[in-house]
């Protein structure tokens, strides 16, 4: 394959955001893999090298010429895992890892010079912890899963004395060919028209805050988990309404916005995986996209009606998910229309897996999935295990009490509506406005 | 002090049932059915239109019909109203005065006893206490007891323990009981399976097939309920993502497989997104 190669639309959009903003650190992401035991640093480094060199989307630098046209240059040098001993194993691994990652998340990568991933193996007396800080250009949420899974396969092969597996990552050229094909371009044009038509029908887009302040400091995170019994009721309600737990959570979020703004038109921002073809599903690089999920609710709607509308709207959104949000905003700007096209952003994360490294169990902690200028709800869906929601917010728009209040309203709405699925949206909002709140 | 307001939760699926220590088989000539405390009063704590109760009642109706068909005698328990302190004993300290309103005393309409059934007066957690239930079973040569109704971890479980101690084999029907919470429901099933009886499911008793989500036909039937595609247009070698199967639905499938001891994850499934490839992967994992 001849390098350098052009970037995909998603990579280019991320490169532009990084370059124009002058705040490259906003696009850093981080995850911590907690090993429930000790692992081999040497095998891990060898596994990393094999994974890294198997994908030109990982083993690369993004170098631009004088005309600000970035190209993907192949660079086979993998990052070196930095090992550090820690005196004791932390009781709260998530907080410890967040604290550890903070200065590294605050430091921007040099897209032209750096491998866009830094790895630290923190070695406690009983356990090891792998903290990975990467640029969103290199990996999105799905890409992180793809990378981790490959790393695990290679590590286990080494531990068993087997040859390293042949990894089948898509190459940059294959992804470009797909995305430059006539069929893909036709789909893009249709998606652009549909999304603009949707937005034309929306009078106003509301979030939980009306402030417009930019990001000045790292996002604040509030993490809450549903209680087991409330989650069981949500699962049961999903069976009854023939929807899913995630659609019920989205319905609850929509209800809190209806209640707050007294408007039945709600537009959420939904993070879309944006991978349909096999070529895309084997690509680790950024492809995810945040698009508007407009809902036109009726005050007489019950949970089933709202959840079904969400289901249908998500199906419609999937058909247009490849059209970049940045392009959509550009379209709106050209037409002199509002650039405010989404309310709170919702990221449904069903990617969790807990692979074993040569018999050592693991658990993964998402430390940062990027920075939002408003509020982003990262919903970790783990099947029968109660969902955990990270409320990441821009502290210039939300103080900690207001985020707690948003959390409480959403959790209460989900609980009330799951308990009584036939309750109308109007009645639910009435109960929420009467302050029938609880902290679950 | 009274019973709390109760919510619904999903009844356990067959794959979630605990492993039994005993290998008893239900014999229609030895078995009796006990429908435990499904009175308006106790059912009322679940509120109107509660999906858990609706499903439990439907399942008990089906089980009762099965028992009639196989000449298995049907017993009910029902607590009396306005019990005196002496009659109610320590239950007052734990739960307050209990049933007071005569309108709340009958069995719920959907399960109303017929003249073929026997209604026992219930005085304590166990249906055998202060009652000749054991003798009635002996008179009919019954030494197996299928138990359904509410509440799983209180009267239902205690009756199972008591039956066991009287050499009557208790069978708890996992999806025909209801409880305060799913945790307590599962606790009752686990205790009975490990210590005093056998936990069975409706499908096991009625001989109906549950969908095997690791077989091509079972998984195909399940997936067809999730996507917009007619069976005759479905191709097992086409991408399920193109058919509209979404990540959350895949995650739910992963949970269901996990209950059967098969570990997979979203990323590996997404890279081979066809039904045929998934079945191949599941077969490999079964052999691991």
Low-confidence runs of at least 5 consecutive residues of chain A: none
Going across the major beta sheet of chain A, what is the strand order? 7-13-12-10-8-9
Share in helix of chain B: 25-40%
For the record, the CATH architecture of the largest domain in chain A stands as: 2-Layer Sandwich
Name the CATH superfamily assignment of the largest domain in chain A: Nonribosomal peptide synthetase, condensation domain
Shape category of chain B: elongated
Would you give an account of this structure?
Chain A has 2 domains: 5-165, 2-Layer Sandwich (Chloramphenicol Acetyltransferase), CATH 3.30.559; 187-351 and 372-434, 2-Layer Sandwich (Chloramphenicol Acetyltransferase), CATH 3.30.559. With 440 residues, chain A is an alpha+beta fold. The radius of gyration of chain A is 22 Å and the shape is globular. Chain A contains 13 helices and 13 strands. In chain A, a hairpin with a 5-residue loop joins strand 2 (60-64) and strand 3 (70-74). With 288 residues, chain B is of the alpha/beta class. Chain B has 2 domains: 14-206, Rossmann fold (3-Layer(aba) Sandwich), CATH 3.40.50; 216-287, ACP-like (Non-ribosomal Peptide Synthetase Peptidyl Carrier Protein, Chain A), CATH 1.10.1200. Chain B is 40% helix and 12% strand. Chain B has a 6-stranded parallel beta sheet with strand order 3-2-1-4-5-6. In chain B, helix 6 (152-165) runs parallel beside helix 7. Chain B is elongated, with a radius of gyration of 22 Å. Chain A binds chain B through residues 142, 145-146, 148-149, 168, 228-230, 232-233, 235-237, 239-240, 244-247, 273, 275-278, 281-282, 314-315, 318, 348, 350-353, 355, 381-384, 418-422, and chain B through 7-10, 47, 49, 51-52, 181-183, 228, 239, 241-242, 244, 246-252, 254-255, 258, 265-268, 270-271, 273.
């Amino acid at each position: 394959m001849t390098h350098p190669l052009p970037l995909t639309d998603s990579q280019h959009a991320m490169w532009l955001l990084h370059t124009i903003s002058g705040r490259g650190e906003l696009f850093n992401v981080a995850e911590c893999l907690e090993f429930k035991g000790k692992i081999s640093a040497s095998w891990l480094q060898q596994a990393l090298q094999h994974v890294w060199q198997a994908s030109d989307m990982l083993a690369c630098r993004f170098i631009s010429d004088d005309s600000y046209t970035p190209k993907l240059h192949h660079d086979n040098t993998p990052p070196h895992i930095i090992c550090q001993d820690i005196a004791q194993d932390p009781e709260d691994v998530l907080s410890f890892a967040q604290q550890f990652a903070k200065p590294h998340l605050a430091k921007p990568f040099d897209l032209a010079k750096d491998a866009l991933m830094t790895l630290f193996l923190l070695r406690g007396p009983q356990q090891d912890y792998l903290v990975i800080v990467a640029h969103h250009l290199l990996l999105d949420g799905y890409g992180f899963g793809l990378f981790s899974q490959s790393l695990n396969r290679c590590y286990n092969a080494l531990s068993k004395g087997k040859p390293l597996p042949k990894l089948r990552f898509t190459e940059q050229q294959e992804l470009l060919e797909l995305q430059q094909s006539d069929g893909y371009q036709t789909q893009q044009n249709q998606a652009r028209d549909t999304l603009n038509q949707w937005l034309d029908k929306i009078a106003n887009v509301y979030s939980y805050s009306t402030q417009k302040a930019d990001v000045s400091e790292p996002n604040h995170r509030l993490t809450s988990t549903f209680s087991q019994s409330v989650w069981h009721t949500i699962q049961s309600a999903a069976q009854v309404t023939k929807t899913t737990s995630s659609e019920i959570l989205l319905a609850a979020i929509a209800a809190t916005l209806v209640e707050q703004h007294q408007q039945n038109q709600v537009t959420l921002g939904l993070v879309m995986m944006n991978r349909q073809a096999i070529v895309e599903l084997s690509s680790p690089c950024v492809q995810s996209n945040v698009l508007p999920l407009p809902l036109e609710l009726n005050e007489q709607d019950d949970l089933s009606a709202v959840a079904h509308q969400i289901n249908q709207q998500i199906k419609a959104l999937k058909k247009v998910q490849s059209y970049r949000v940045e392009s959509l905003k550009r379209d709106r700007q050209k037409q002199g229309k509002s650039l405010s096209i989404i309310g709170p952003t919702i990221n449904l994360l069903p990617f969790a897996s807990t692979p074993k490294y040569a018999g050592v169990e693991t658990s993964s902690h998402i430390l940062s999935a990027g920075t939002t200028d408003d509020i982003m709800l990262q919903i970790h869906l783990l099947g029968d295990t109660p969902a955990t929601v990270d409320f990441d917010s821009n502290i210039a728009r939300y103080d900690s009490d207001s985020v707690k209040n948003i959390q409480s309203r959403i959790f209460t709405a989900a609980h009330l509506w799951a308990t009584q699925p036939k309750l109308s949206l109007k009645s639910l909002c009435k109960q929420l406005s009467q302050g029938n709140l609880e902290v679950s | 002090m009274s019973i709390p307001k109760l919510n619904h939760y999903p009844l356990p699926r067959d794959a979630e049932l605990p492993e039994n220590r005993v290998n008893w088989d239900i014999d229609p000539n030895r078995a009796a059915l006990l429908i435990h405390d499904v009175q308006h009063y106790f059912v009322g704590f679940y509120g109107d239109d509660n999906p858990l109760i609706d499903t439990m009642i439907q399942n008990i109706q089906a089980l009762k019909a099965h028992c009639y068909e196989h000449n298995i005698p049907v017993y009910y328990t029902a607590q009396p109203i306005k019990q005196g302190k002496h009659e109610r004993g320590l239950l007052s300290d734990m739960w307050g005065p209990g049933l007071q309103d005569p309108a709340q005393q009958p069995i719920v309409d959907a399960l109303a006893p017929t003249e073929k059934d026997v209604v026992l007066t219930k005085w304590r957690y166990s249906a055998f206490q202060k009652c000749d239930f054991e003798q009635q079973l002996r008179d009919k040569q019954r030494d197996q007891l299928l138990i359904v109704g509410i509440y799983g971890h209180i009267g239902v479980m205690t009756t199972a323990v008591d039956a066991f101690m009287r050499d009557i084999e208790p069978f708890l029907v996992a999806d025909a009981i209801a409880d305060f919470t799913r945790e307590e429901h599962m606790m009752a099933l686990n205790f009975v399976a490990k210590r005093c009886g056998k936990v069975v499911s409706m499908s096991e008793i009625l001989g109906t097939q549950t969908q095997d989500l690791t077989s091509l036909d079972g998984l195909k039937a399940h997936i067809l309920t999730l996507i917009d595609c007619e069976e005759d247009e479905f191709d097992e070698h086409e991408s399920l993502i193109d058919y509209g199967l979404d990540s959350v639905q895949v995650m739910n499938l992963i949970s269901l497989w996990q209950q059967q001891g098969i570990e997979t994850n979203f990323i590996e499934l997404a890279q081979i997104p066809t039904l045929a490839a998934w079945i191949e992967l599941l077969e490999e994992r079964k052999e691991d």
